Hints:
Layout: E1 9-11, E2 17-19, H1 39-54, E3 71-72, H2 73-76, H3 81-84, E4 93-100, E5 109-113, H4 114-117, E6 120-123, H5 130-144, E7 150-156, E8 171-176, H6 180-203, H7 209-216, E9 222-228, H8 242-256, E10 258-264, H9 272-275, E11 280-284, H10 289-296, E12 309-313, E13 317-324, H11 331-346, H12 366-371, H13 373-380, E14 384-389, E15 395-398, H14 400-403, E16 406-410, H15 413-427, E17 434-439, E18 455-457, H16 460-486, H17 491-499, E19 503-508, H18 511-515, H19 520-532, E20 538-545, H20 554-560, E21 564-567, E22 593-598, E23 601-606
Parallel strand pairs: 3-13, 6-10, 6-11, 7-8, 7-9, 9-10, 16-20, 16-21, 17-18, 17-19, 19-20
Antiparallel strand pairs: 1-2, 4-5, 4-13, 11-12, 12-13, 14-15, 14-23, 21-22, 22-23
Amino acid sequence: TDNIDTTIYAINDLGQYDILTEDLSGLDKKDDLTKLPSELDAVIDHIHEYTEAAGIEALPRPWLPPLPEQIFAQDLHPVNFEEAWKEPKKPLQATIGLLDQPELQAQVPLTLDLTKDGHVAVFSSPGYGKSTFLQTVTMDLARRHNPNQLQIYLLDFGTNGILPLAKLPHTVDFLDIDNEEKLRKFTKRMNELISDRKKLLSKNAVANLNQFEELTKEVLPEILILIDNYDAIRETDFSFGFEATLTQIAREGNSVGIHLVISATRQNSMRQNLLANLKLQLALYMIEGNEVKSIVGQTKLTITENAGRGLVKLEDPTLFQASFPTRSNGTMEHLEHLEKEMLQMSEYGTYEITSKIPMLPDKISLEEFSNKKSVQNTLESHLFVIGLDDEEAESFAVNKVNQLPLLVTGENNFDISNVIKQFIELESKDLLAKEIIVIDNMKYDFSKYQNDMYIYGNNKTFMETIIQNSMAEYEERRQALTRLREKNRTRVEIEEHLANMPEILIFITNLSSLTDSVEVKDLDVLEKMLVDSASYKIFFIIGADLGSLSGYDSISKTVKAMKNVLLFTDVKQQSVINVVSKPGAIKPLKPFEAYYIDNKIYSKVKVSYVNEEE
C-alpha cells in the first residue's frame, strides 16, 4: 500500500515548511506497521528461490560485481613470512588492495613498487582509512622481508594510528610530534645515513643501492619511513631542518634505499618541492571532491564514503579498495591479531637491527648509570666519568690528566652535592693505587664518607693539613719527573714512572667553606697546585655555588677561570663562566642535566641521581 503524509504545512517567506497539523493518516498510532514488497521485488525473489532450488546456474554476466566493501590482505595476497624471510632480498613491493578495471573486465590486486616507482603518499579526509592503509603497506612489506632486509621508522603525528606497528621486529623506533629532541636526532641520523650511502655508491662507481648489492654481494637494509598525518608538521616550527631532510629523502632516498610512505588530509599540507618527488599518490574519500582530481587527474569516477575506497592514477584514474591488514571483525580483534602476528615474527630467528634513537632518560639512578656498559668501559679505562652524553646517551668521560681539575657549579647546592657524590661513588669502584680525600661542607652533607676507605674531614685543621700535605706530594712528584728529564730518560720511561704514581683525588665539596676556614697563604698554595697538579696525578674536583664565584679575590678568579666546568645553570642565563655562544635558542635544563664546558665550548650531559639510602 502507499502511505500518504496528510500533514498540512504552511510555507513561509523563506521557503521553510511550518507544520500546521499532526499526521492525520493515523499511521503513527499503529503498533505494527508492515511494508510490503513491490511486485517486481516479489517476482525477483521468487525467481531467485526457484533457480536455487532447481540447481539452475546463472549465465555469465557481461560485467563484474562491484568492489567489496572490505578485503583482507590474507585473501588478496597470502604470504608465509617464515618462508619469505629465508629468500634473498627482493624489490620493495607491497600488495595493498584490489583494482576495479571494468574496461578490461578485470579486478586485479594493486601492488605498489617502491623500489621502482619511489615514495608513496595517500590522502583522505579524517576517518576514511589513511592509518589503516599505512598498516597494510607496512605489514605486507614486513611479511615479505626479514628485519635484516627492511628497517622501519614510525613517525606518528596523528592519534597513534600506526603505534601498534612499534612491536614489529623491523621497527627501529617510534616518534611523535611532541618529542622535538628525538625528531632532531632522527633528522641528524637520516642526514648521516644519506651521506654515508652516497659515499659508498660513489666509491664503488654505481648509481643506486641495487647496483651496489649486485656488485659487492653485500646486502644493506632498505629503510622505510612511515609518516602518519603529515599535516601536523605545518603547525610546528622545527629549526633543525626536518622538512628539508624529508625533501632530500624524497629527491635522493630511492637511489640509496630510503623510502617514504606518507599520509595527509590535503595535498597543500606538503611543500611543493616535497610533493613533486612523491610519484605514487593515492586518494581515499575526501569531502572536498576537487581535491581528488588534483591528486589523480580528471575523472568521472567518484569515491564512495567507504573506508579504504579510493582512486589511484595508473594510465587513467582507477578505483580500488584497500585491503585490511588482518582478518578480523572490529578494531579490538584487529589489534589482537596484529599483535599476535608481530609476536610470532619477533620470536622467529635472530636479526640485527639498528639501535633506537638514543634519548636521555628523565632520571637515572646511580645503580642504573653504573650498570651501563659504556660507563663500565670508561671506568675500566681509568677515565673520569661525568655523565651521559646528550647526543648518544652513552658514557661521557674525560681524561683526568688533561681535563682536571673540574669546577662543579650552579645555583642549586643539591645539584652540586649530588654529582660530587656520583663522582666519589664511581671512583670508589677501584681504590687500587688511588687515594680519595673528601673535604666536607659545614652541613656534613658528605658524612657517609667518614670511614676507612676515605680521608675525610671538614674543620680548619684538616683543611690546612690536606693542602700542605698535597703541596708536599706535588713538589715531590714534580721534582722526581724533573730529575728524570735532566737525566735524558726516554718519554716511555717518564710515562711509566708517572703511571706508577697513585692517583690522589681531592673533592672540595664547597669552596666557600674552605676559603672561610683557612689562611690566605694556604689558599695561595691551593691556587698554585690548581695550575698543573693533574700532570702529577693529583686531581681536584671543586664544588662552588655560582654566586660565591662573583668575588674578586684571587682564588675565586682562578677557580672560575678553570677551563673545565660542569655548570647546572643555563649557559646564556649567567655571566660568571665564560662560554662561546652558539646560535639559536637554548632550551631550559631538565632535572639532573648540566653543561660540560671545555675551554669555553659547551655540551649537554645528564648526571645520575644518588639515593642516600642505597
